[in-house]
Amino acid sequence: GDSVTQMEGPVTLSEEAFLTINCTYTATGYPSLFWYVQYPGEGLQLLLKATKADDKGSNKGFEATYRKETTSFHLEKGSVQVSDSAVYFCALVSGSARQLTFGSGTQLTVLP
Amino acid sequence: NAGVTQTPKFQVLKTGQSMTLQCAQDMNHEYMSWYRQDPGMGLRLIHYSVGAGITDQGEVPNGYNVSRSTTEDFPLRLLSAAPSQTSVYFCASSTNGRLQYEKLFFGSGTQLSVL
C-alpha cells in the first residue's frame, strides 16, 4: 500500500536558519504530493502541493519539488522565522483515492 | 464564513460510554471525512462521505459510525468507547473529493480521552 516517511523530529533551529524536512514516499502510479502545516491548537492547513513529476510547489517562502526518480518531496525554506514553529506533515493521494496518506509529522521549533 | 466547525473541543469519557462528535461545514462541500491523529502515526482516515446519504469506510473504521443526512453535517459516533480511542479527531472537507487536485479544509479538532 501507499506510505509516506518523514524525517524524525523534533527539529530546533535558530531564526534565519535554513530548513530541510525530508519526505519520501511509496505509491502506485503517479501520486499527488502535499505538505500540510499544523500550528499549535489548530487544524491542518495546506502549505503547498505538486501534482506531477518535476513540479515545484511553493508558498510563504517554503518550496518542495516532486522528484519521481528518488520518490521524494523534501520541504525547504531559506530563512525560517519564529512564526514557522509548527508540525509539518507530508502527504500523498494516489489516483482517484478518497483519502490522503500522511507521514508521521515533524515538529519544528524556531528560536529567536 | 466559519469553514469547518467541530464540537466539542475536549471530551473525557469512561470506557463503554457513547458519544457523538459533531462536524459542520458551511462551504457546500460534497466531500467530508474524519481522521484521527495519534503520536508518531500521522493522521488516519476513519470514514468519509462523498455526498448526502453516501458514506464509506476508511483505514480505521472499527468502533465508529457515521451518517450524512445533510450536505452540511457529518457526525461521528462512538458506540462504546475504549481507551484505544483516546486520540485527537479532525473533520475535513473538500469541494467534491478529487483529492489529487483539491485541498482539504480541516476543523480545529476534538481531543478525546477515554478512561
Protein described:
The complex is a heterodimer of chains A (112) and B (115). Chain A has 112 residues and is mainly beta. Chain A has strands at residues 3-6, 11-14, 19-21, 23-26, 32-38, 44-50, 56-59, 62-65, 75-77, 86-93, 101-102, 106-111. Chain A contains no helices and twelve strands. In chain A, strand 5 (32-38) and strand 6 form a beta hairpin. By secondary structure, chain B is mostly beta strands. Chain B is built from no helices and eleven strands. Chain B has strands spanning 4-7, 10-13, 19-25, 31-37, 43-51, 54-57, 64-66, 76-78, 87-94, 105-106, 110-114. In chain B, a hairpin with a 5-residue loop joins strand 4 and strand 5 (43-51). Chain B is globular, with a radius of gyration of 13 Å. The model of chain B has no long low-confidence stretch (mean pLDDT 94). Classes of the chains: A mainly beta (112), B mainly beta (115). At the A-B interface, strand 5, strand 6 and strand 10 of A face strand 5 of B.
What are the salient characteristics of this protein?
heterodimer, A: 112 residues, 4-stranded antiparallel sheet, B: 11 strands, 0% helix
Binned, the helix content of chain A reads under 10%
Chain-averaged pLDDT of chain A: 94
Measure the end-to-end span of chain B.
Answer: 36 Å
* Count of distinct strands of chain B: 11
